[in-house]
Each structure stands twice: as C-alpha cells, then as structure tokens.
Amino acid sequence: MIPGPFNYYRPATVADALKLLSTLGDEARPLAGGHSLVPMMKLRLATPEHLVDLHGVADLKGIRREGNTVVIGAMTTQHELLASDEIGRSLPILDETALLIADPQVRYRGTIGGNVANGDPGNDMPALMMALGASYRLEGKSGAREVAASEFYQGAYFTALEPGELLTSVAIPVPSAGHGYAYEKLKRKVGDYATAAAAVVLTMAGGKVATCKIALTNLSETPLLAEDAAKAVIGTSLDPATLKKAAAAAEAIMSPAADARGPVEYRKHVGGIMVMRALQRAAGRAS
Amino acid sequence: MPKTHITMKVNGAEVEGLVESRTLLVHFIRENLAMTGTHIGCETTHCGACTVDIDGMSVKSCTMFAVQAQGSDITTIEGMANADGSLSALQEGFRMMHGLQCGFCTPGMIMRAHRLLKENPQPTEDEVRMGISGNICRCTGYQNIVKAIQYAAAKINGVEFREAAE
Questions:
Q1: Could you say which of A1, A7, A191 has the minimum Cβ distance to residue B134?
Q2: Does B38 share its domain with B60?
Q3: Which residues form the [2Fe-2S]-binding domain (chain B) (predicted)?
Q4: Side-by-side strand order, sheet with A135-140
Q5: Min CA distance, B159 vs chain A (Å)?
Q6: Chain A partners of B67 at a C-beta cutoff of 8 Å?
Q7: Residues of chain A with pLDDT under 50
Q8: Which residues pair with A212 in a beta bridge?
Q9: Each residue of A175-218: pLDDT tens digit?
Q10: Is B48 in Cβ contact with A105 (below 8 Å)?
Q11: A104 and A159 inside one domain
Q12: Is the residue at A119 inside a domain?
C-alpha cells in the first residue's frame, strides 16, 4: 500500500506554511502527525498533490500557561501531553483521554492539533475541548481568529477551517481547583475509536453538583455538547433517578451511525451508560 | 516523480539515499538500506511489526515518509546487539523466556520494549502490557513476551529475575 505521488514541503515558520498552503491551493494538505492522513493516502482515499509537513515549525510546539489558560501548540503530541507536569496538574482529563487514544507508538506522533482539526467524529479530544470550553486559534493569510470548540464542528470532516487556514494552537481555560472530571470510552480493543464515549467536567458544593459540562464522542457526525443532560444534574447529588434522566437527555441528541461497532440502538444505549459512569467518577474525584 | 536526497543516521552509521516523497520509511530501510529485520505486517499502523526507534521515540515506520526522517537518528533491530555482538538484555530475554514462536512480530516487540524500558526501567506487568499494546502477536498470547521484557528489565537493573507464580 503505497500512497499516490505528491510534492513534499517542510516549512520552518507558520508564515511560510500559510504561504505554501495559499499558493498551492486546494490540492495541498497540511501534514501533522500523519496517523490519520497517511493511512488515508495509502488507501488512496486521500490523494493530495502537495503535502506541507509541519514538523519543522518549532512555533507550533509546546505547552504554556497564560494566566488562567493553558495554550497548547498544535504540533504537541499526545506523548508530550502525557509527559507534561502542567497538563497533569491543571488538566488531568487530557492525560486520562490521551492514554485512551490509539497506542504508544501512535501517541509519539499523533498531535492535539491534528486530533481536533481533522473533524473525524471518532477523535477523542474534540468532545473534551467542548466540555472544557476551549477555543482554537486559526491562522490564515489574512490574519488570525479564535473559534470556540463548540462552534468549530459542522459535520463529519467539515469544520470552520477555511481553505488555506491552519489551526495553530488550542487555548483551554483551567477548570477550578477541586473540579471533578472523567472520560469514559467504550471501545472494542486497544487502538479502536469509541463505540461511545462521554467527557464530564464538574464542580461539587455541599455534596451537590454546582456546575457541569458533558460532551459526547462518536455518537453523531460531530462531537456533541449534552446541555440538557448537564442541566438535569445541577443541584442534585447524582442519585440513580437523576443519572437515568441525564442519560436519557443525552441519548435524545445522539445520532450514531450503525457500523461494525454496533447498531444505532446499542450505541445510544451504551452512550447513556458512558454518561452515567463519567458523572459518577467525576463526582467521586471532585472536592 | 523527482527524487529527494536524504541523509540520516541508522544504527550509528550515516546513510543516504534518493527517494520519492511517497516512499515510506519502512520501504527505505528494507529496500534501500537492505536491512530486512524491520518487518511489514499490516501496513495500516495497527500491528507494530515495523516499529523502529527514531530520535528517542517508538515509531511505526509504515506510517511515516522517508523524507520526514531526514537528519534523524534511527535504531532498528539490526542495531540492538551489544557492541561485541553478544545479545542485548532484551534479545536474551526473548530467547530465555521463549518470547517468540514464529518470530514475525519480534523485531517490533524488541524495538518498542527498548524505548519502554528507557522511559520506565522498572515497569509493572500492567505497564509492560500497556507499553506493548501497539504491537500484535498472533502466536504467543503475550505471556512469554511480557516475561521476556521483565527478564530484560531485571538484567538491566542488575537484579535476579523471578517469574511471577502462575
């Protein structure tokens, strides 16, 4: 399985990468970790004429704290997230999730930017970004703009990225100290995409849920923010009846595909269970 | 298609070649460098047979282009023996613990275990199993591969290897 021919470019700056993408036009694709794009190219499902490899752009790497926000360069790998003290301290849900992505070799190459920008409904980070209220920095020839993760996804592989634009970093507001979090992912085996997965970030006060965000992976063409499900648990102590109500509210917005991971009814059912488990585990971690 | 001249270090030696941009790293290693220890299994990033060590990372060399390895420092299974030609701790572990049957996955297993033990010299059994979760073996059921890696860890740490009771 050998990909079709293409021209290879390795710019050293974001400006050069943007210039290449705009000059080369529609047949050019940026290459991040390559663990989605290269397999697609081998199957000839993707046949870009030009690949703009971003590995030479040092400015796209790294994790930094800016006040109450963590900014992660798009080319930061899952492995680097797992190795980062800053992430472990302030955004432990990223570690929990990164460990559920593919396998160790893939995590050395796979990047956060590629994961969130590709628009693959099976990718795990987008739901997290929604639950955390993250935003993406999109840079193009005519300047930069910030787009909220919740506004970014339009359909499977369709996003707010315009032709010639690059997603250069992800900005995540740090959740308050003592927040609870969990990412529950049901998959058939190591390395698989989710049959269903749910991300929860919440805070508790006096044994009751004070704030809560719930987001879902691979249960629709895009990641979903389950707002009604989150509303249903506010002010409760997550008793069994409330958990069931939240699961039902989440299931009401799911529209998964029927595929090798199971029929629609099954995927919605286990999606509800992932929501209940994530809520319980997150509450157990909150202080 | 025009070809690109690339240079890199493989097992300590400077190598070079002319490649099309679409040439996968694993093909460059096997066909241009004639090092066939790195195996091609699934070609779909699942099986790990093509794993090599690149700049301190375990990478599936079927999912990277050779041009991307320009200037990098690569170790393949051919570079794993000790300088005097004797077996390294990992190779010895696979031999002593019978960590292979058909042997097809072994180069990838050893290259992945090599980086795992560099990052975590005393892994628990669970950590070994998660550490090689990107490598598939269809013969052994993994039991003896895990023991082989634990054997190597013990040897590297200078302690006696004790098999867990079964």
A1: A191
A2: yes
A3: 76-150
A4: A63-66, A69-73, A166-173, A135-140, A143-148
A5: 27
A6: 8, 10
A7: none
A8: A202
A9: 999 999 999 999 999 889 999 999 999 999 999 999 999 999 99
A10: yes
A11: yes
A12: yes
Coil, strand or helix: which one is A257?
Answer: coil
**Domain final residue pick, B49, B79, B109:** B79
The domain in which residue A29 lies consists of 7-56
* Residue A49 with chain B: CB contacts under 8 Å: none
Asked whether residue B84 is domain-assigned, the answer is no
Rounded to 5 degrees, φ, ψ at A135 are -135, 155
The C-alpha of B74 sits at a distance from chain A's nearest C-alpha, in angstroms, of: 15
Q: What is the 3-state secondary structure (H, E, C) of A110-126?
A: CEHHHHHHCCCCCCCHH
Tens of pLDDT along A149-165?
999 999 999 999 999 99
A278 and A219 Cβ atoms separated by less than 8 Å: no
In Å, how far is A177's CA from the nearest CA of chain B?
29
Q: What span, in angstroms and rounded, lies between the C-alpha atoms of A62 and A81?
A: 9
Contact B20 A5 (CB under 8 A): yes
Residue A36: inside a domain: yes
Length, in residues, of chain B: 166
Q: Which residues pair with A148 in a beta bridge?
A: A135
Is the same domain home to B62 and B103? no
CA distance A44 to chain B (A): 12
- Chosen domain end from B79, B107, B126: B79
Q: Which two tokens mark B37? A: 């220890």
Distances (CA, A) of A54 to A14, A60, A109: 8, 8, 12
Domain that holds residue B24: 4-79
Is B74 inside any structural domain? yes
Asked if residue B97 and residue B35 are part of one domain, the reply reads no
- Cα B35 to chain centroid, rounded: 13
Q: What is the pLDDT of residues B112-150, one digit of tens each?
A: 999 999 999 999 999 999 999 999 999 999 999 999 999
Q: How many domains does chain A have?
A: 3
Put simply, whether A12 touches B (Cβ < 8 Å) is: no
Same domain for A126 and A116, yes or no, is: yes
Neighbour count for residue A56 (Cβ, 10 Å): 17
User: Is A189 within a domain?
Assistant: yes
Choose from B58, B72, B142 for mutation: most chain A CBs within 10 A: B58
Nearest to B63 among A35, A51, A104 (CB): A35
> Residue B103 falls within a domain, yes or no?
yes
Cβ contacts of residue A98 below 8 Å, gap of 6+? A78, A81, A82, A107
